[in-house]
């Protein structure tokens, strides 16, 4: 082998070693679904809020335990919590709550009580109202002379601690439902939910504890990012292994049936391996980690990467004793280069997509194709010096097929058949529908979706994934704007709004309460004396009127602020900001209407934003597809002439129409991924027609190369139909249908020779 071949071989081996070491570490895979999505919010504070909330939820798992009866529910939950703690893989496990000191709230808020609430003074004598307050069983925590009309007690009772369906029962957080008592157990992870080591240990502990807890009549519901990340990883690995195995077997079968040569089989696999090793190494160097979808889709590139080797092997088989590897490679090199360029253009179009995951797929595929092409160019000719034994039967069969195809191409009814096919495809396209909802890209397992839906129903947690971002010049303005938003309640579908201002009133509201208390002081003092209070006790009612304001900083230092701490974003480059989270089952339009006209209040709907971005890029990609068709047509026209360029483009266009019609018939919506698949099919379809156009005198070698390349592409991308991810399944079916029809109709390119 020549020096350039050895240099490329050494480089590929280095790529393979690097990629193997990184993958063996177990930390080179990215299972964070958010990392695959683009940043959609123009406001950086909104993106920061999204990341903050995501980190808060992804570090915790939530388990709900139901037993045969309430006593069994409590026993099962306590046993589960003990087993999880004994596993020593979680940072903390919480089932029983520590004894709550009811006076902690009183001690914190009491110094600010004159700023928090003011009594509604009844007309006339206040003494009866004050005496009635003395007999009231409502807990205030304050001596009667410091809260004579219960305004402070009313403030404490109104704090929204119970914003979910949970209630405290015998020291456990539980929710009573029609099927029994569900007791909640939570566990904090020791690390990221996307860390494979953390995943394995935590899932093992939960599964083992669940197995020990299992009894007739008991049920365990689970949710959390940990389970979704593990589900996505396991599903991707299963699909990758299955698609790789079936794709490899299919390609091996093509080699065995066609060439009957171990040398060609090994060289073909070497082309694929070189492409994959190069792609893995380049992506790991460029991105640090590989998205799961990159691995799954990357397996399908094997079917395209082997096309260049197939075309060279087909000419090797058909050359017989006249075989000259160097001369043959020089003759087919223009077709190989044109095929590579059109494929790279197709994958390169994915780089314009807003998805980081999709861009990584584009880089992976482009590098894999380039690596395979370089292997064919630099290595294969030196290993194909000897001619292959003649296969007269195969040559005769290919000659008959070619002759029949040329007959069809020249038949006078062929244009009519094409026109009828176009009419049929056009009619089917009427049933196409567009769906850009990002939630259709990933489909978790049915068990996970069922558990999450039930937990959300029990806990009354919002399923919309949307929240309000509140911004202001300072802390006081943020709190005031939160209060303005809370004043918009009731909002359809919203059970409540979790907001910091429910615990810390805005300075304006605190000043208003203080002014009212000052104004009420003379009447209140008189009423207390009339009710029998001693003068010194009545005088004490003015305590706290000179206190300073309650601030968010002071509230953040309390233990009961822990659940809402992530909602306070604090200082930002535009002042200060916070998050208000709706509970219940709201829809995005209702939430959008709720914040209309409120300055500084923005609805952040990540799923909706990404879906709108997908719709925008789908439209952009559609125009890009039209531009690519025009560009390829101009290139082919400049090389072959206008008439021939139309004949070379026609199979690809028919393939795209057929793919859209097949998607409509199968119920697949048109998405950004559908358009991307069509862009790729354009490059592949043009490859085949160009390969046929550049055939030799007999033409059988080019026909065999196109048949093998098309078959391997169909095997690889058609296997994506086995994926349980809807977007991948639609992508594979679209591309396979387009390539199949483009191959079958590529005979249109056989009418003329350059």
Automatic annotation (TrEMBL):
Transmembrane regions listed in the UniProt entry: 242-259, 266-287, 293-314, 335-355, 361-380, 620-641, 653-686, 698-722, 728-750
Topological relation to the membrane, as annotated: Multi-pass membrane protein
Lineage top rank: taxon: Bacteria
UniProtKB keywords: Cell membrane, Membrane, Transmembrane, Transmembrane helix
Keyword Acetylation carried by entry: no
Gene3D superfamilies given in the database record: Multidrug efflux transporter AcrB transmembrane domain
Major site of localization recorded for this protein: membrane
Cellular component terms per the entry's GO annotation: plasma membrane
Location relative to the cell: Cell membrane
Name assigned to this protein: Membrane protein
